[in-house]
Amino acid sequence: MARPGVRATDAKKINSELFTLTYGALVSQLLKDYENAEDVNRQLDRMGYNIGVRIIEDFLARTSTARCTDMRDTAEKIQSAFKMYLGVNPTVTSWSSASDEFSLLFDQNPMTEFVELPESCLSLKYCNLFCGIIRGACEMVQLEVTSWFVQDSLKGDPTTELRVKFVKKLEDAMPAGED
Amino acid sequence: MAIYSLYILSKSGGLIYQYDHTSIKVEVEKTFSYPLDIQLTEQNKRIVVAYGQKDGINVGHNLLAVNGTQLNGTSLEDGQEVMAFLANESNYPVSLKFGRPKLSTNEKIFLASMFYPLYAIASQLSPELKSSGIEVLEADTFKLHCFQTLTGIKFLIVAEPKQMNVEHLLRRVYELYADFALKNPFYSLEMPIRCEQFESNLQLLLEQQEKSGVNTV
């Protein structure tokens, strides 16, 4: 009998290069389709959102974590999710004084491993998918957040920094028995 | 040890998946002579035993077949009303089959959406703050276990009262849902789940669980 907490079917591990290249193919195809980098950013965010609303169930099912009570808790969980799905361990820093805003610093980012941005698309946010995923996933657990990139190593910054800001709790979307 | 059925309710309370695992079949066939010694009535377009319990035919059982042919609601295959047929002495002796009716899909949807407010009421009735809703509902013939995820989806399992480890099983079903329903790009959220892989993996899981349940007890 499978012991509680031990998965009979383990999460499958794949080579990150395959994932990186697939994502690269997606972004370059979007650039062809839209021509305008702003539109591509928007599309990536939308796709991320759609991924987020599904991936959250996977995360909850696998980790059986409890509901977050504050933003620090949320930050920790987002951090662990990055570890789980991308194998990277971003550092959580630069808390705002109200504890409602923080940054995720990525020393290395598997998504951008083989990427050099051409001059023509400097306004492209290559990893904008992340923003959408975080937004979608948090929304499903009744938390509205926004996130954006403040630094991007693809654009010559020393690290990649993703800022996450708490907007509000979605009280009316709370399932009964949880509020 | 038995797991009878599984229901998945969406966040808004709609039934998005239902699966009957083990169903106990209660069917009794018997030959009757005139006059019929049990009272039958018509209820919701079905013929129901109203009084007179005997030989495994219980009050509440439905008339399923007459002389080996299935009933079509309250009428026979040739369109004749059953009640009229049974009142006619020349049709005797007659063989009647009785049993517990299966829930129709509509009834299942109806029951599932009834559970939703019950769950909410339970959490509000609680004397303590921050109570969950109904987690276990117990009756003498079954136990209903409910697990609500943080995103509001409810997983219900109806099992035998003695069935162990149902909480763990519910979490495993959640994992299957995350894997095989949500990762299917053709599945849209909040819609009924029609994914073959989900169904077959679920079946496998329930069978395993039943076997292991026997071992541990």
From TrEMBL, chain A:
Keyword Transmembrane carried by entry: no
Keywords: Endoplasmic reticulum, ER-Golgi transport, Golgi apparatus, Transport
Main subcellular location: endoplasmic reticulum
InterPro entries attached to this UniProt entry: Bet3, NO_sig/Golgi_transp_ligand-bd, TRAPP_component
Pfam families: TRAPP
One GO term describing the cellular component: TRAPP complex
Family assignment from sequence similarity: Belongs to the TRAPP small subunits family. BET3 subfamily.
Functional note: May play a role in vesicular transport from endoplasmic reticulum to Golgi.
Name of the protein in its database record: Trafficking protein particle complex subunit
Organism field: Daphnia pulex
Lineage, opening ranks: Eukaryota, Metazoa, Ecdysozoa, Arthropoda, Crustacea
Automatic annotation (TrEMBL), chain B:
Classification via InterPro entries: Longin-like_dom_sf, PDZ_sf, TRAPPC
UniProt-listed Gene3D superfamilies: 3.30.450.70
Signal peptide bounds: none
Localization: Endoplasmic reticulum; Golgi apparatus, cis-Golgi network; Golgi apparatus
Domain of life: Eukaryota
GO CC terms in record: endoplasmic reticulum; Golgi apparatus; TRAPP complex
Pfam assignment, any one: Sybindin
Transmembrane segments: none
Keywords: Endoplasmic reticulum, ER-Golgi transport, Golgi apparatus, Transport
Keyword Transport carried by entry: yes
Function: Core component of the TRAPP complexes which has a function of guanine nucleotide exchange factor activity for Rab1 GTPase. Plays a role in vesicular transport from endoplasmic reticulum to Golgi and autophagy. May play a role in dendrite postsynaptic membrane trafficking.
PANTHER family assigned to the protein according to its UniProt record, in alphabetical order: TRAFFICKING PROTEIN PARTICLE COMPLEX SUBUNIT (PTHR23249), TRAFFICKING PROTEIN PARTICLE COMPLEX SUBUNIT 4 (PTHR23249:SF15)
Family: Belongs to the TRAPP small subunits family. TRAPPC4 subfamily.
Record protein name field: Trafficking protein particle complex subunit
Organism classification: Eukaryota, Metazoa, Ecdysozoa, Arthropoda, Crustacea
